[in-house]
Amino acid sequence: KVDLSVKELAWESERCNIALRKLEQWFVDPVVQDVVSVKSFDGQWEVSAFRTIELPKDFYEMQEEIERQKTALMDKGKRKETADVSDERAGENREARSTDTKSSTTKLKGAKAMRVERLLRKMEERAKRRQKRKEEWAILYQKKKPEGFDDPTEVDSIRYARDNMGNYFLKSAADFVVPLEQRLTVLRALDRIMKLRYTTYTYKREFNKRVLDLIQRKRTLAEQINNELKRLKNLGQNQSNHQELFNIPLLPPVKDGDEG
């Protein structure tokens, strides 16, 4: 029975140690800075540090993965733009080839020649429409005002709207659609969360460092003041008539944790 009791006590002790270690790993080990406070010498002002938790071990790996996915999406968009440009160039090349094949259609006869002629006519019409659009764009670019130019009529309209109309946003419209580049995706949400978490962690660390510097500064000042008070007390021992003037209490020592 004694051996059984010893084994049960050993098992219970081991279980409690494991439970305690798990609690410490969950609540104590991740803490970089616990809450500490520092007060002014007169006790009217007090400032406390933030209880700061260390970032997860895989935090920077997650950041790198998000950046990699963002880069992949940007490269995909660039490849799409390149593909559009190549398609446009291919269309121009087809137009150039159509002029070469036009001469060869004269050798064809019958229904086949008619089909080829219809295809060539459609290609010519598309080429004309494309050329017309290019000319229209060229005219529009010529009419474009220089950067920084403000139309007086538009300036007056904006001023009138600001003075006489309410603050209406496009988002309040019933047919408002969020642009594709502004839509909140999972990747963008994760990126924002990671940046906010890192920024908050950085600000807390900087603020805690200032609080600890204040505590160290107060400790140094308290030691200097107490040394001077001790010197005054030693000098006052020879002044029997005014010895009560030299009985100045010393400042309390500054502790490392919460201090008053």
Automatic annotation (TrEMBL):
Signal peptide extent: none
A single GO CC term for this protein reads: cilium
- Superkingdom field: Eukaryota
Where primarily located?
other
Instruction: Locate the transmembrane regions by residue number.
Output: none
Q: Coiled-coil annotation: which residues?
A: 215-242
Q: Which controlled-vocabulary keywords does the entry list?
A: Cell projection, Coiled coil, Cytoplasm, Cytoskeleton, Repeat, WD repeat
- Composition bias, kind Basic and acidic residues: at what positions? 71-100
Ranges for the region named Disordered are: 71-108
Cell location: Cell projection, Cilium; Cytoplasm, Cytoskeleton
Q: What is this protein called?
A: Uncharacterized protein
